[in-house]
Amino acid sequence: MPTDRKKQKSENRLEGPVTQVPVELPSRHVFVKCPSCHRVCDEDVLSENLDVCPRCGYPMRVGARRRLAMTVDAGSFEETDADLMGTDFLQFPGYADKLRRARVRTGENDAVITGVGSIGGCPTAIFVMDGEFMMGSMGVVVGEKICRLFETATKLQIPVVGFTVSGGARMQEGVTSLMQMAKISAAVRRHSEAGLLYIVVLTDPTSGGVTASFAMEGDITLAEPGALVAFAGPRVVEQTTHKRLPQGFQRSEFLLEHGFVDRIVERKDLPAMLAMLLAFHDVKPFLAPDASTHPELLAHEPEPVPEAKPEPGKPAFAVPVPMGVGKREPLSSAITNLAELAANDVLPGALGKFAKQAMQGQKADQPQDDQKAKKDEQEQQPVDSSQLSAYERLERVRSAERQTVLPLIRQTFDGFLELHGDRYFGDDEAVVAGLALLGRRPVTVVGTERGQDTKERIARNFGSANPEGYRKSLRLMEEAQKFDRPVICLVDTSGAYCGIGAEERGQGEAIASNLVALSGLRVPVVTVVVGEGGSGGALALAVADRVLMLSGAVYSVVSPEGAASILWKDTSRAPEAADALHITADDLVQLGIVDGVVDDTGLGTKEFAHRLAGVLEQQIDELSKLDVDELVQKRYERFRRMGVDKLC
To answer: pLDDT, tens digit, for every residue of 22-36?
Structure first.
């Protein structure tokens, strides 16, 4: 009976017309688990945050197309060699099926996308490796497409920006895949010898043959936080050494500490950072015709690529970016372009902030510590250096009360962008170096930093550089020469560090290499001794066209304490030794060692920084008028004549 009643109720419900009532179902939520903090996050929220975990900041892996959309100016990218496809030429077991499945799954023909576009209005050749296609492994197609991109960039006289993600050479293509390392490296060399910029962004994971070739061949190397970057992966290292690896081994922070990365940049800041670097390297916006009217610009031509720059006065190739029609603009226009885009809220916040500050004469890339930033800007009490003895001046420049080099750089230059690493062993915090604007002119700035409190002074080794510091400065000076950028050195050090590790890693060789390189550097070099100039450790940054000193600075062959100890076995006679050594600015001008003295009254104030900037601009303007060969010859003659008039 109960069964019949249920049946009757069911039939009654079906009688008459059926009315469909729309029901609003809740939207479907997809959750993603962060591989770092293991928290779950809504997929939509994650996507809005550029696939970076909103809880711990871990940047998750993204596909090549999404990476492009995050990076290039909207509508500017023109893909090259999109139809290039590889084959199973070795008949490797299962490879043909793997290729087919990877193409179906990703919609790409292989593991890299190449093309030409613009970043921050600057024309750029771009490659983005795709980790979703066979883990970004490098086969013939990857090698050929990247090689062609560098050849095209060399022809067009434009920089290359590359995003790497790869498990290494593709085993299914045998030794042929290995040869792509050499092939791309040769194309990178030709591009570099043409005086062009190559920026690499290392993403997770970059390993094997890619790390051992084009991933480590950039002029500037950036990395995302936490990215695994290795030649041999962690599992291989553990199996080979039978040792457990330390926490963070082979991650990007590890590489920064060991000198192989210039900066670690969060994903949201990458477009801004790339645009800043392009502007600093004199990559000027092209005002070019539409790509459809010049398809030959994007077509690969297999003929040999000239290694030299275009002849003077000969127009460079145009690049299809949506900037109108016209010709190359001067560098100041590249910076102005950034400011205009920032004013119109076209650029991301970090780049907009940089551009506006640079145009307003303010300083970008300020310290993260607000209290330290305020301390840097505090005005110091003026002191008349002429009333101090030589040893009193030395004591004053060593004092923690005196402004050090890093805050002076931030006050004197616009948009200082510090770069790190010697590419051999480490990053020495005693030497700060990077790119900046002196007025409207990009310059390379190198300085020795003592630190502003006890903790920082210990971290920076009290301004006494290790070999890594001098090798970092040499790397950036050579980079400045490649891009025809003046070098400014600010010296404040008691001398090069004397320690077991420093000797093991070649302290003397590192200083000697700087002396040789600086003597022939083909760009203007100006050095200012702003505090203590101690022996060879100071000279390693002072083989310059013009050497200036602040009025309260000192410059000596040896510390007065060392001289007193060696000569008289009595360190209490250090003041006497200081006078005998003639270490003051006025003494050294008379000896012909120093070219001029800058009054350091008001050191630590904006007024002094403005005055110093004016002096530096004047020196660079004068030196820039010289022919390169004349510049180098005059530098040689400057040091050649030192001491000659003191001979009998």
So the answer is: 555 455 668 888 888
Nearest Cα neighbor of 34 from 65, 68, 57 is: 57
- In angstroms, the CA 521 to CA 542 distance is 12
* pTM reported for the whole predicted model: 0.83
CB 598 within 8 A of CB 551: yes
| Cβ atoms of 489 and 526 closer than 8 Å | yes
Confidence of residue 350 (pLDDT cuts 50, 70, 90): very low
CA dist 371 → 366, 376, 381, 405, 455 (Å): 11, 9, 20, 18, 15
211 neighbors 186 (Cβ within 8 angstroms): no
Average pLDDT on 566-590 reads 91
Q: What are phi and psi of 162, to 5 degrees?
A: -125, 140
Tell me: the pLDDT tens digits for 74-112? Answer: 999 999 999 999 999 999 999 999 999 999 999 999 999
Q: Which two tokens stand for residue 581?
A: 């050594």
Query: For 238-267, what is each residue's pLDDT tens digit?
Result: 989 999 989 899 999 999 999 999 999 999
Query: How many percent of the chain have pLDDT more than 90?
Result: 64
User: What are the tens digits of pLDDT across the range 395-405?
Assistant: 898 988 899 99
Find how far residue 544's CA is from the centre of its chain.
Answer: 24
DSSP for 124-155, written as a single string = EEEEEE-TTTGGG-B-HHHHHHHHHHHHHHHH
- In 72-107, alpha helices (H): 95-106
* Contact residues for 7 (Cβ-Cβ < 8 A; gap 6+): none
Residue 550 CB coordination number (10 Å):
25
Taking 60 as the threshold, does the pLDDT of residue 9 lie above it? no
- b (16+ CB within 10 A) / e for 442-454: bbbbbbbbbbbee
Whole-number average pLDDT of the chain: 84
- The answer to whether 59 touches 224, Cβ cutoff 8 Å, is yes
Distance in angstroms (rounded) separating the CA atoms of residues 364 and 345: 18
Cβ atoms within 10 Å, residue 618: 12
Tokens of residue 612, six digits: 């110093």
Q: With contact defined as beta carbons under 8 Å apart, do 455 and 411 qualify? A: no
244/589 Cα distance (integer angstroms): 59
**226 vs 10, higher pLDDT:** 226
Report DSSP letters for 237-290, one per residue: HHHHH--PPPTTTTBHHHHHHTT--SEE--GGGHHHHHHHHHHHTT-PPP----
Let me know the angle formed at the C-alpha of 215 by 523 and 484, rounded to the nearest 5 degrees.
Answer: 10
Contacts of 175 (CB under 8 A, 6+ apart): none
* Residues in Cβ contact with 284 at an 8 Å cutoff, skipping those fewer than 6 apart: 122, 328, 329, 330, 331, 333, 334
User: Are residues 464 and 499 in contact, defined by beta-carbon separation less than 8 angstroms?
Assistant: no
389 pLDDT band, cuts 50/70/90, is confident
Q: In 3-state terms, what secondary structure has residue 444?
A: strand
